[in-house]
Amino acid sequence: YLWDTQQPQSASFDKSLMKFIEKFEAIKGKKHLIIDESHLIKNQSAKRTKNIFRFVKSEFTTICTATPIGKNASDLYFQFAMMDKRIIGEENYGGFEKKFLLLGGIDGEKVVALQNTKELSDRISPYISFLTKKDIREDMPEKKYRKIFFEMNDRQKRAINYIQGLVSQIQSKM
User: Fold this and answer.
1) Partners of 111 in beta bridges
2) CA dist 23 to 16, 17, 51, Å?
3) Contact between 56 and 33 (Cβ < 8 Å)
4) pTM for the whole thing?
5) Other beta carbons less than 10 A from residue 164's beta carbon
6) Are 107 and 73 in contact (CB under 8 A)?
7) Pairwise CA distance, residues 83 & 75, whole Å
8) I need a surface site. Which of 49, 77, 103, 107 has the fewest CB within 10 A?
9) CB-side exposure of 94: number of CA atoms within 13 Å?
10) Of 1-10, 66-75, 86-95, 161-170, which gets the smallest average pLDDT?
């Protein structure tokens, strides 16, 4: 949502970037950008990330997500840099990568773990609020899970065995 201190407005960032920018820039007074599903802000190559950093300027930014660390711990930098780079304490991604990410894999460029996690946690924890379902609504039903077992055919079994072998090889090289 776009929020003017006098009147709320809304526009979809992904559907029409130019329309969004036009509406956002037209807001008078201080701007507060609220980004829901902010886990979709990924790395420095992602189009959405580039567009938000390039075009959207606000005095205040709030990010909301139920998925703070997606597939890659490096996404944390862009999540918090969206609000304020001073939270992470690193001016750019390279500094964050050196200080907090452990790289590995075949080419040595894959994020395999976080390091200095206590320091990172101390820096970001004042900016994190965690709500459970019960905090939101007392009568929220519990999640229901259902396990479904099935037999794999021979081709699927060979594929699984092959992948498990590759994973074992990679792990043995770390």
Assistant:
1) 103
2) 11, 10, 15
3) yes
4) 0.61
5) 10
6) no
7) 13
8) 107
9) 0
10) 1-10
Q: Tell me the C-alpha distance between 107 and 168, whole Å.
A: 16
d(Cα 113, Cα 87) in Å, to the nearest integer? Answer: 20
Please return the burial class of 79, using the count of CB atoms within 10 Å of its CB with bins 0-12, 13-18 and 19+.
Answer: buried
* β partners of residue 138: none
Buried/exposed code over 3-24 (b: 16+ C-beta within 10 A; e: otherwise): bbeeeeeeeebeeebeebbeeb
CA distance 40 to 63: 11
* Structure tokens belonging to residue 42: 């990924």
Q: How many residues does the chain have?
A: 174
Rounded distance between C-alpha atoms, residue 4 and residue 26, angstroms: 10
Distance of CA 166 to the CA centre of its chain: 28
DSSP code of 142? Answer: P
Report d(CA 66, CA 56) in Å as an integer. 23
CA distance 52 to 13: 9
HEC sequence for 3-18: ECCCCEECCCCCCCHH
* Residues linked to residue 35 through DSSP beta bridges, in sequence order: 63
Terminal Cα-to-Cα distance of the chain (whole angstroms): 44
Task: List pLDDT tens digits, range 98-148.
Answer: 999 988 888 888 888 888 989 999 998 998 888 877 888 888 888 888 999
